[in-house]
Design a protein that fits this description.
The protein is of the alpha/beta class. It has helices at residues 2-5, 11-16, 20-38, 83-91, 122-125, 132-139; strands at 45-49, 55-62, 65-71, 95-102, 107-108, 114-117. The two termini are 24 Å apart.
Length: 149
């Protein structure tokens, strides 16, 4: 629906659109409650932003803590992707882990931070099939270093 309203009719148009970061974030966020509902869980997903504009794109309860994700359309990881998650951990006393979700390869750091590819992000997308519009738009996501950071 979002792409239709933006006048995007072909998957290749997504990579050239200046709103590619917002489109990608919307794609990931909207799939999370659907996947959780399909598993019989409540959505319980939030966006976090403080009065200084520090934010994370997605937050959820994990046990007695809050976990978070920062969603980026880039296919190449940059340390800047961790900035919002680091602020979240400093501001929220019961913060669990945080993960950047992006279009590149998954990997981890020695401090336990895991950088995840949006297709393999098990916490929200575990039961989602790779069919329909999801597959068409996801396959058209940028292969370059273009980021919405």
């Amino acid at each position: 629906m979002l792409c239709f309203l933006l006048g995007i009719r072909e998957p290749e148009q997504v990579t050239r659109d200046p709103l590619v970061g917002g489109i990608f974030e919307n794609l990931v966020v909207i799939e999370c409650p659907k996947a959780r509902y399909n598993r019989g869980e409540t959505a319980d997903l939030w966006f976090f932003r403080d009065s200084n504009g520090n934010e994370v794109d997605l937050a959820w309860r994990e046990g007695g803590a809050l976990a978070a994700a920062e969603i980026k359309s880039a296919s190449t990881f940059s340390m800047g992707m961790l900035k919002g998650l680091g602020r979240f951990r400093r501001l929220v006393s019961r913060a669990a882990h945080g993960s950047p979700i992006y279009g590149g390869e998954p990997h981890g750091f020695s401090d336990g931070t895991r950088v995840r590819n949006f297709r393999g992000w098990r916490e929200c997308l575990e039961t989602r099939s790779e069919g329909g519009a999801w597959r068409r738009i996801a396959s058209a996501m940028p292969k370059s270093d273009k980021a919405d950071a």
